[in-house]
Amino acid sequence: MKKITAIGIKEEEKPFRVTFQKEFRQSLDNLPKGKYKMTVEKYQRKATPDQFGWLFGSIYPLSLLALNDAGYEFTNVDQVDIFWKCMFANKEVLNRETGEIMKIPLSKSEFKTVDQMTFCNSIRDHCSEFLGVFIPEPDVDWKTNKNKL
Asked: What share of the chain in percent tops pLDDT 70?
């Protein structure tokens, strides 16, 4: 059975409302007979293309240069991506037979906007503190500046 989801909005002084309420209600009415568990949790947007653009267009290239200056031998941004994911975006997996704990890099495609900001700031902080390289904040007017070129 396909999962049914909807986005709801709660604004100050207004009742909770469901976006596309008619379609959501119709999906619920079309469910087969049975008991269902409903859960409401705060919605968080996935990381945006602009966030990934800043990561791959600025943070990774600048950190690649900094890492190579520090003695690493990375040749491309893909290698740097794996390096930073192992450092700051991993989860621990336990082998129950041996008790060994392994770290496995997470997929950035599943990051929420907050996760992406934390990941980028962790890289920037590391570069600043340990590699002596400052990676600037993204240019908020980059679209305007791009059109001027």
From this structure: 95
Residue 147, classed as helix, strand or coil, is helix
Domain count, the chain: 1
C-alpha separations of 8 from 20, 46, 73, 114 in Å = 9, 16, 48, 20
DSSP letter at 140?
T
Write out residues in the chain with pLDDT < 70, as ranges.
142-149
Span 53-72, pLDDT tens digits: 999 999 999 999 999 999 99
Is there a domain that residue 9 lies in? no
Buried b (16+ CB within 10 A) or exposed e, 96-111: eeeeeeeeebeebeeb
Phi, psi of 88 (to 5 degrees): -125, -5
CA 125 from centroid of its chain's CA atoms: 17
* Both tokens assigned to 122: 């962790």
Residue 79 domain flag: yes
Query: How far is the CA of 131 from the CAs of 4, 38, 63, 116, 147, in angstroms?
Result: 47, 48, 9, 21, 33
Q: Which run of H or of E encompasses 15?
A: none
